[in-house]
Each structure stands twice: as structure tokens, then as C-alpha cells.
Amino acid sequence: MEFINAIIVLLNYTIIPALTYGSQLALGAIFVTLIYGILRFANFATGDMMSFGTMFAVLLTFYFQSLGINLGILPTALLTIPFAIIMMILYMLLIDKYVFSYYRIKKSPPVQLAMVSVGVMFVTQAIIRIIIGPFDRTFLDGQKFILKASEFKEMTGFSEGLTIKSTQAITIVVTIIFVSILFWFLNRTKTGTSMRAYSDNEDLALLSGIDPKRVVLITWVIAGILATIGGILYGLDKSYRPFVYFNNMLPIFAAAIVGGIGNPFGAFLGGYCIAFAEIFLTYAYKKFLSYLLPEALEPDSLMQVLSTDYKFAVSFSILVIVLLFRPTGIFKGKVI
Amino acid sequence: MAFFEGNQMTAGYDEGADIISSCTINVNKGEIVAILGPNGAGKSTAMKAMLGLLNLRSGDVTIAGKNISDLNPQDRVKRGISFVPQTRNVFAGLTVRENLEIGAFLRNDELDKIIEEIYELFPILSDKKSQTVGELSGGQRQQVALGRALMTKPSVLMLDEPTAGVSPIVMDELFNHIIKVKKTNVAIIMVEQNAKQALSISDRGYVLVTGKNKFEGSGKQLLHDPEVRRSFLGA
């Protein structure tokens, strides 16, 4: 009984939140890895592009709410995803046409493109602040919980309650569906294979008649979908604050590099690696241990390895360790 | 007039000096032509110029009598010219079959039929079709590279040192494969370091020195020409 309570505590405060957070990071990390693999630069505007897409979802959610449109128990934001994606893709294609394509055609070195993306990042941040402002906004509506602690306790009779937030379930389900479609596309379709070929060996891909413009276009379209969905899921789960997305770039890059940069499946798993590491190392295990240990041994302290303020230090350390000892990442990407 | 010709080609990289000057190479269908010469003679450059990877300063390239000097490499590929680079000539992260599929990217018809033909030509590829090319041996990779280039059903196949870095046994095997390809009525141009072996399977050969045609003739003639032997064949 005590043991099951301990497991519930762990599920409640670490495993379910880590799966949720990991899914959000995974979508961002696949974005980073695709841009790196195909357009060949580290896109520092990743976080703010996610924020940009989410901004439209927030604004449209408020608009739909004012019209009285909603999805019942599901958040209205889900309804706005297609529109937000379209806006995001348009913005990305515009940026690509007027900024990135110039350096791509000139065959600038990747580091120059990365610097250019820093510029894009600042511009994107400014646009977001002009349109929606820097404030914190909650745009989640509909039913908040799938399973409430009190309901769970009544159902099972355990003293510990298990809660599952609807945003957690939505995040995990949407991620699994979207990522499955993406991998099917990349591995099973002709266009997907041509994108992998282009990422693998650009010159030979050109000699085989692959149209680079088309590959770049499709990459931005997929990136737009990834950024928007990832951003919206994160915003629904936490709340929408434009700056937070910029901060999330560190764990996202760490996830992409841990998974082997240029390798989308690696980035997907990398997202969960980082999320679990961050949450397991910053969780206070006091309650968990109090269920397992006899009363005499119960810890007085919080039993926390690191304060939650240091969660970015965890992803940063992982990033450094991976780069030092296994620069190709766990799943063999390109060497940086 | 030959099927595929590079006439009086002069070319160099960027603003640099001419690497080849007034160099002429031609090949007919069902013929193997070897381009030989010392290091830095412009062998690969001549081939790249024929493919359009660098622009001609003078001269022209024709296929079946049509001037294609102004076309970029992709458009020349569409005209039936296929090229196997010396290095990075496969998609290492893709499977053998995917490599072949990408080779036929521009074709929408008869994909399976052409792949079957390639498997007949290179039986080993059929056994390894689901393997990642990066895991194959050097000789097998070269076969993948040849197979990929043949997927467009080219009339001209250009090979840049197809036997570089493989063992003598594998080299013989690769040359046998190249002869098999030639018998399907493809015009083959190859740059080779292994001059003796290359000449022994070639119908004709060109010896380039400092970017100019120095000797040319049938494989046998060149093999037995005393001056060629002394300067390039090391005997």
C-alpha cells in the first residue's frame, strides 16, 4: 500500500509531467534538427518562432471565445491550430525569402547563418511584443482535469491522489500522432526520402534531380507545423509568456544534440531524455521517501538534488557532457 | 561525329588559371573511354566541365549533336548524362534501395522494373537492399554508386576514379561490372589512376598533360606506345 502510494507520488510529480514536458521539447528538438540537417545551420530563432505561432493561437482563442465558439470540454486553442500554423508558415517563408535564402545561395558558412538567425530572433521577439505584449496569458479553457486527485482517492481508496491534467493528455496524444505521421512521411514517402537524401549528401541529391527549392519549402512547412504545435502545447500546459520560449531553447538544443543532430528520431527521444533528467534531478523526494522508509529514517530535508531554479543547468551540463564525450549524440548524428 | 563530345574545352575554377586548355574528349555509345594522366593534369576537371560543374571559358559540349554547353548539371542529367563522383558518391544514411530510388527521382514510371535490372547487373545489391549503405564495404558502395547513376537510364556514364581505394580483386570485379554496363549500349568515360588496368578494358584512351591532349588512341595502342609506357605506365 505504502509502496503504491510512493509510485503514485512519483507518477504525479515526475513521470507524467516529464512525459508532457518531454513531448514539448521533442517537437522543438525535431524542428532544430530538421533545420540543421537540411538547411545546415543552428536556428537560434527556434524558441521565438514557437512563441510567434503560439501568439496567433492565443489571439484567435480570445477571438473565438468572444464569438462564443468553443470545443466543449476540449480547449478552444485546438481549433486555432490550423490557422496559427498557416500564419507561422507564411512568416517563416517570408523570413526565408528575404533573409535566409540570400545566405544560402551565397553558400555562406553555417556559423554565419546561425548569426543571421540570431538577428531573426530579435526581430521576431520585437514583433511579438508589438502585437501581443510581454505579459503572461492563460488561454486554456474547457475541462481542466481528466482525473482529479479527489476522484482518484475515492475510486481507489489510496491516500495519495493521482491527477491527470487535460493538457498533459492532449500534449502526449497530439505529439504521438504528429510525430508518427512525420516519421511515416520522412521514411516512407518519396518526398520524405528525397529530404533525407538532401540532408545526407546535397551535391549528389542535386545530381539526382532533387529540386532544392522544393526541399527547402517543405522543410519550412514541416518546421512551421512543429513550432506551432510545440508552442501551443507548451503554452496550454503552462501559460503563454513570450519570453519563456526563448529560455526553452537551451533544453531544446540540448535534446537535439543528445539525440544526434540531424537525426529526427534521436531528437524525439532526446526531448524525453532532457525532460526526465531535469525533472528527476530537481524533484524533492521527501514525500516519496516518507512512504518507502520506516518512520525513524524519514528525511528532514527536502531530498532535492538541485533546486528547480537550476533546471536549465541540468540541460546545460548534459549538453556539455555529450559534446565532450560523444559529439555525435546518442543516435549518431553529424559531428558539430 | 561522336555521340557525346567535349570540343576544345578551356576551363578553370573561379578566377584562377586555366586548368584544361583546348582539351577534346569524345565517346560513342557502347564504348569505354579512359582519361589518364599524371596528378594535376586536369582529368577530373575535364570530366566536370563536360558535366557542367564548372563553366567553359571556350569550347563546347554536345550530346547527339546538340550543344548543351549552357545547361546546368541538373539539366544535363535530364539529357541522359550520369555522373559518379570520386568521393561521397552514395547516400550513406539511406538504404541501398532508397539510394536507387533517389537515383530515379525524376522518373515516375517503371521504378520497380529498373531496380530489378540494376539488381541483375549487381546481384549483391539485391541481397543488401534494406541495409544502410554506410555499413557496406568499399566495393559494394561503389556498386551502389554505379547503380544509383544507372537508375536514370543514362546514355552517358561518367566515372571519376571508380576504383580509388579498393583492393585489386575488387578492382577487377568493378571493371567487370563496368564492361557489363557498356554492353547495355551506354557511353562510358572514366578517369583512372590504375592506368594499365583501365586501358586494358577501354576501347580508347586520352592521356592529358597539364590540361592538354598529349596522346590518344585505342587502349592497345596506348598500352604498347613506348613513350606512354615510359612516362605514365611505369614500365
Write structural notes for this entry.
The complex is a heterodimer of chains A (336) and B (235). Chain A has helices at residues 2-39, 46-67, 77-105, 110-131, 149-156, 166-188, 190-200, 202-207, 212-237, 242-247, 249-258, 264-282, 286-292, 311-325; strands at residues 145-147, 164-165. Chain A has 336 residues and is mainly α. Chain A has one domain (2-325): ABC transporter involved in vitamin B12 uptake, BtuC, CATH 1.10.3470. In chain A, helix 1 (2-39) crosses helix 11 (249-258) and helix 11 (249-258) packs across helix 12. Chain A is globular, with a radius of gyration of 21 Å. The mean pLDDT of chain A is 92. Chain B has ten helices and ten strands. Chain B has helices spanning 43-51, 73-78, 96-103, 111-121, 123-127, 138-150, 168-182, 195-201, 219-224, 226-233; strands at residues 4-11, 20-27, 32-36, 56-63, 66-67, 81-84, 156-160, 187-191, 204-209, 212-218. The longest helix of chain B is centred in the C-terminal third of the chain and has 15 residues, at 168-182. The relative contact order of chain B is 0.19. The A-B interface holds A 190, 193-194, 196-197, 199-201, 203-210 and B 73-74, 77-78, 83, 85, 88-94, 98, 101-103, 105-106, 148, 152.
Percent range for β-strand residues of chain A = under 5%
Q: What structural class should be given to the helix and strand makeup of chain B?
A: alpha/beta
Kindly report the average pLDDT value of chain B.
Answer: 90
Q: Helix tally of chain A?
A: 14
Q: In total, how many beta strands of chain A?
A: 2
Determine the number of helices of chain B (DSSP H or I, runs of at least 4 residues): 10
Strand tally of chain B is 10
N→C terminal distance of chain B: 34 Å
Helix share bin of chain A: over 70%
Largest interface, by Cβ-Cβ below 8 angstroms: which chains and how many residues each? A-B, 16 and 21 residues
Order of helices and strands of chain A: HHHHEHEHHHHHHHHH
Overall body shape of chain A: globular
User: Gyration radius of chain A, to the nearest Å?
Assistant: 21 Å
Strand content of chain B: 15-25%
How does the overall form of chain B come out from the CA principal axes? globular
Assembly level: heterodimer
Number of domains of chain A: 1
Order of helices and strands of chain B: EEEHEEHEHHHHEHEHEEHH
In whole angstroms, the N-to-C terminal distance of chain A is 49 Å
Strand order of the largest sheet of chain A: 1-2
